[in-house]
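Lab notebook page, bench 4
Experiment: in silico fold of construct C2
Operator: M.H.
Input chain length: 426 residues
Purpose: comparison with the prior construct
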Amino acid sequence: MAIGKQVTRRKFGKTAAAPLFASASALGLNGATPASDRIALGVIGIGGRNRRNLTTFLEQKDVRVAAVCDLFAERREVGKKMVDDYYGNAACAATRFHEEIFERADIDAVLIGAGDRWHAVLSSLAARAGKDVYCEKPFSLTIAEGRALVKTVQKTGAVWQCGTQRKSNPGYKFLIDVVNSGRIGKLHAVRLSFGASGNWKRNAFAAPEPAPDPEVFDYDRWLGQAPWAPYSAERVALWRINWDTGGGSIADMGPHFIETLQWARGDEMDAPVAYEGEAEYRAEGGINNIPYWYEVRARYADGLRLYLDTGAKGLKFIGDKGWIFLSDTGGMQAKPDSVLQGLEPPDAHYLIQEPHMRNFLDCMRSRKLPRSHAEIAHRAHTIVHCANICLRLGRPLRWDAGNERFLGDDEANRMIYRAMRAPWRV
């Protein structure tokens, strides 16, 4: 059976010679998946978020993690140890070069969690190398690179899933069913709260320091497509709150909640047509240059109002008969009480991620589109980027979703793109 369509993909059970001696696990006995039918996975990025992803993939019986990649030697060692300890051997390869992952003909898919500036670039390289991809969000720094990634995925036929795991969370499905059942009446507003940006209180100035040995930490490669800047440990630690390498809490949390909103609306390709808002930035300057407080007000063509802010993480759907709120940690509240009367909300904690990964693995075999495929993810990310551009310019914007252009604003349209540092591209 072939997992993928591309000729570079490994054909399971077709070419490998049978070993003289094989374990029960390798033969598929005792409920195990035969080795010939397992999906071989490479992992790029061994930070905290992707370690959780790696743990879940290790627990899938039809997956075999073959290699890990990270630019920090310490993280490479952590990733290799996680894999080797789980399997009880020392077979996992560890490298700082993603090219070594993509060149391996025996690897079928890659798990990517390497920082916002790298996600679209690595996804594109992986798809062109014949690999399927499970990629953490935000998967793009700009609207343009998101659209470019969609085109690459469509051209190569890769199965690509965004790591917006709430899309497969039963609690989020319950939330949408309540909203669409009419229990809160006609939906007229949605408030999505993403929490204050991490480390926003830090007055961060990146004083240049000598760069580490690349074998210990490859800083130049870490920068990726971002403009070159002198090394500093502060710059590396606070990458998410620097515009060159991240997009703050809107970009970090936005794709999760916006995909849910689009799902509830029944049109995941739609987008607001107008944006306005306010933000506060640190007055001192430095590398901490994303907003630490903001409110964005957006409007869909049908009149639905969307609010994005820094309140406690969660989603609030507001109708003309009541409202329902889902906390990011799974708690659910509603007014009036009749909204949830007779219902038992399932657990909706954000750490429920196995169903989303199973959807990806199942789609690798069926070649169907996964729940958070590239086009859906791009549409949600586009709303995120429009909100950030609105805040940075400090003025209202109008958006043409069909042409992916701002109306009558050349400066805003220039922010759809960013120059990418050679040789990286999508």
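Observations: The longest strand covers residues 63-69. The CA atoms of residues 164 and 256 lie 5 Å apart.
Next step: discuss at group meeting.
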